[in-house]
Amino acid sequence: MTKINRVRIEKSDCCVAITKLEAQAVSIRYRDRLVLHDISLPLHKGCVTAIIGPSGCGKSSFLMALNRLLDLVPEAQVSGKVLLDGEDILESGINVTTIRRRIGMIFQKPNPFPLSIERNIALALEHHGITDPAVRTDVVEHSLQAVGLWDEVKDKLNTSGVTLSGGQQQRLCIARAIALQPEVLLMDEPCSALDPRSSAQIEELTRELAQRFTVVIVTHNLQQARRLSDYAALFWNTNGYGELIEAGPTNVLFADPQREETREYTQGTVG
Q1: Cβ contact 179:140 at 8 Å
Q2: Which regions of the chain does DSSP assign to beta strands (E)?
Q3: Going by C-beta distance under 8 Å and a sequence separation of 6 or more, which residues neighbour residue 122?
Q4: How far, in Å, CA of 200 to CA of 198, rounded?
């Protein structure tokens, strides 16, 4: 397979290319089945990186490997290295709870707890040892403000989070994640279950969050990837497993791809 051109991954017109999180030769198996092979990809601080590609090429599995959520999947095996500020988080002895606080996750379908809006955030804080009521109250408000939800819910904080609209629920889940002050935010198709207006709100919010966090987003929406991301990486199903076939600044990858598969996929003729 043609090697990734590393020079193309190192620069973007949109943000400074300082690597925050990096996959090195990451492979994933479920039981004896190889689903993702030999992924090496730097993820840059303060940037949005879009992971794109057809269904079944391991994009979501890769995302879950980046904060060790695959530990919770029976018989999932991850090899290689995932470096967070140079430290391999796949090594034994790493505090996984701390890793998941530093690397937050937003899922495809909004998943608020069946608790009040306030408790959705407060419970996450308590789980990570933040028990001071005054601190919790302050963090709840600031987190909801950060996702543009405070004015919509400030008078009904005791209302169940599951009664909110789909877009509001997803913003609540983002507020819950950023309340823990992560350094990296992983987003697995966060708009796929939302209407166009809610999707636009999440996109705008994602760009704002990139000013504070390193953001990695899996999306099937190529226009969304072009709008949102500074960098893009194309995963492809080869011989029954996923591989990374091209990566680089988003504007370059879409305008001047080096692989024919990339050209055809970004132009919508395959995939």
Answers
A1: yes
A2: 19-30, 33-44, 48-52, 76-84, 87-88, 103-106, 184-188, 214-218, 231-238, 241-249
A3: 136, 140
A4: 5
What confidence tens digit (pLDDT) does each residue in 149-203 have?
A: 999 999 999 999 999 999 999 999 999 999 999 999 999 999 988 999 999 999 9
Strand order in the sheet with 214-218: 87-88, 76-84, 19-30, 33-44, 241-249, 231-238, 48-52, 214-218, 184-188, 103-106
Direct distance between the N- and C-terminal alpha carbons of the chain, in angstroms, rounded to an integer: 19
* Each residue's pLDDT tens digit, 205-260: 999 999 999 999 999 999 999 999 999 999 999 889 999 999 999 999 999 999 99
What φ, ψ does residue 263 adopt, rounded to 5°? -60, -45
pTM for this predicted structure: 0.90
